[in-house]
Structures are given as structure tokens and as C-alpha cells.
Amino acid sequence: MTMAKNNEVESPSINLIGPGTIINGDINCNGDIRIDGSLIGSINSKGKIVVGTTGLIEGEIICQNADFSGVINANVMVGELISLKATAKLTGDLVTNKLAIEPGAKYTGKCNMSSNPIKENKFSEINEKPKSQELS
Fold it and tell me: Could you tell me which residue, 12 or 18, shows the higher pLDDT?
């Protein structure tokens, strides 16, 4: 009699949030994810995040690669490459290694380029608020 080994093998997964779907909360995933619906909350992916033309994200995004065509109102940290397609509208601060912006894309925010932004935690630097001073 042989016993099957209980080995957990991580296969690449692709997650999908379809058009018309609204998620309120945070998402953590190991694979790639495509968002054609709405996410109100943060998303952390070890893979690629694709936001389609009908997609909307409001919150914070951390991932290895990103391909945006929809509306993103979030601070974004990308370990490698972020691509803003012609229909993309990104409002928020960005930390990335490489940035590609197609003509027609809209981007409003601060950008910090770093060779390894996630490992160096460059996100905290761009989000630091200046200390307020009291006037006498």
C-alpha cells in the first residue's frame, strides 16, 4: 500500500474580478489578477495586476508588474514594470522600476523611480507627510 505525499504545488493562478462585480475589502494573491469590476480596498499581488477598461481600484496597490487601462485612484508600488494604456486614468503616487505611458493615458501624482522599490520599501518615502509646524 502506498501513501500519497501531501505536497502542495503552487501552480500559476489567474484571478478575475468580472465587470459589474464590486469588492469592498483587501485582496492578497500569489498569482496574476485581472480586474474588470471595482475594488474598494488594497491589493497585494506577487504577480501581475491587469485593470481592464471597465476596471476601477480605490485604495493601495503593490505588485510585481501592472497593466492599467481603467481608473485607478490609489498609491501604487510596482517591483518591475507598470504600463499605462491609452484609456488609463491613474491618480496617486507611484513607485516603480520602469514606467511606460501610452499617448492618451492620464496620470496625476508623484513618481519615484527605483531599481528595487518593493525590497527598498520606497513606498514609505513617497507617502511621508511633512511635519506641521505651529505658528506663534
Answer: 18
pLDDT attached to residue 118: 74
| Residue-by-residue DSSP string for 72-121 | EEEEEEEEEEEEE-TT-EEES-EEEEEEEE-TT-EEES-EEE-SSHHHHT
For 39-82, the three-class secondary structure string (H helix, E strand, C coil) is EECCEEECCEEEECCCCEEEEEEEECEEEECCEEEEEEEEEEEE
- Residue 25 phi/psi, 5° resolution? 150, -175
Domain boundaries, the chain: 14-120
State the Cα angle at 43 between 56 and 46, rounded to 5°.
Answer: 125
Within 10 A of 23 (CB to CB), how many other CB atoms are there?
15
Q: How far apart are CA 35 and CA 19, in angstroms?
A: 8
| Amino acid letter for position 54 | T
Integer Cα distance of 101 and 76 in angstroms: 15
> DSSP secondary-structure letter at 37?
S
pLDDT-based confidence at 132, cuts 50/70/90? Answer: very low
